[in-house]
Amino acid sequence: MAHTGGATLRSLAALGVPSRALSRDPARLTSALDARTLARTTVLRADAADPESLRAAFRGAHQLFLTMANGPHQVRYELDAIDAAVDCGVTHVVKVSAPAAEPDSPVAVSRGHHLVEERLRSCGVTATVLRPYAFMQKLLLLAPGIAAAGVVHGATGDARCNYVDVRDIGDAAAEVLTRPASAGGTYPLTGGRAYSHPELTSLLGGLLGRPVRYLDLSPSELYAHLVGRAGMPDWLAAHVVEIQQLAVAREETPDDSFRRLVGRAPRTLEDFLVENLHRFR
Question: From residue 220, how far is each of 130, 259, 271 by CA, in Å?
């Protein structure tokens, strides 16, 4: 299950709301959830590549929280999931989308999200769209390189990027799933401020008490680094480069949708880094 799925299950459980969770590997999902969340969650086996398994799992449900990891088949899987949900009588779908979900977006994944959003809005159900920016939790992927060499690679120059904690995405999702008045909107989700890579490495270096530097690369150099050194699949490396170039092309600034929706400030990047500082040492 995607990061946002687990976060949403935990947020719903904290509110005492029962839910179903679907996974190709129920045992793995069950082992990843805490006792309080498991007590409120029915874990079922379903495969996005098998629409009949989705229909079996959706029967009797009224709402669907739709989140899938980015991948080459994501659009087809999400469209099939929406069709199965509608067939089973689901009346409200909350979709985790992406910034710049537009037909001409420079980010291929965002163009795919646009297609899914368009289908969702045309199928006769209440459609709520969450558009989170970069997950703070994804920064943990940088931890080994920072711990070993004190270096972060990127291709953003001094452009600032929005970051959001996935736990806040879960809280936002729980809000729109449990309060009908909040359903039906489109919500960009960010933290309280945007950071450039130089600002991020300066903040992290200060917390660690040792230098952390940012190495700015060209887009092609970053792609080669991600494929050759980090071992990313081609499509994922291309996605990372596209996301970074979007931040260069379009200024990213914080959005107050989360505060208006949930009624509190989002978690800060500094607090997230302090909480996970041991991972970067």
Answer: 31, 37, 33
What is the DSSP code (8-state) at residue 152?
A: E
Q: What is the full DSSP assignment across 10-66? A: HHHHHTT--EEEEES-HHHHHHHS-HHHHHTEEEEE--TT-HHHHHHHHTT-SEEEE
Q: Which two tokens stand for residue 217?
A: 């690369």
User: Which DSSP helix (H) or strand (E) runs through 176?
Assistant: helix 166-178
Residue 253: both structure tokens together: 């600034």
Radius of gyration of the chain (CA): 19
> Cα separations (Å) of 271 from 36, 56, 165, 264?
24, 41, 10, 15
φ, ψ for residue 108, nearest 5 deg: -60, -40
By C-alpha distance, which of 125, 124, 118, 154 is closest to 138? Answer: 154
Q: What distance in Å separates the CA atoms of residue 144 and residue 141, rounded to the nearest whole number?
A: 7
Query: Tens digit of pLDDT for each residue in 138-155?
Result: 999 889 989 999 999 999
- Please measure the distance between the N-terminal and C-terminal CA atoms of the chain and give it in whole angstroms: 28
Other beta carbons within 10 Å of 225: 18
Profile the chain (281 residues) by mean pLDDT over runs of 10 residues: 87 97 95 96 96 96 95 94 97 97 93 97 97 96 91 96 98 98 97 97 97 96 93 92 94 97 98 96 93
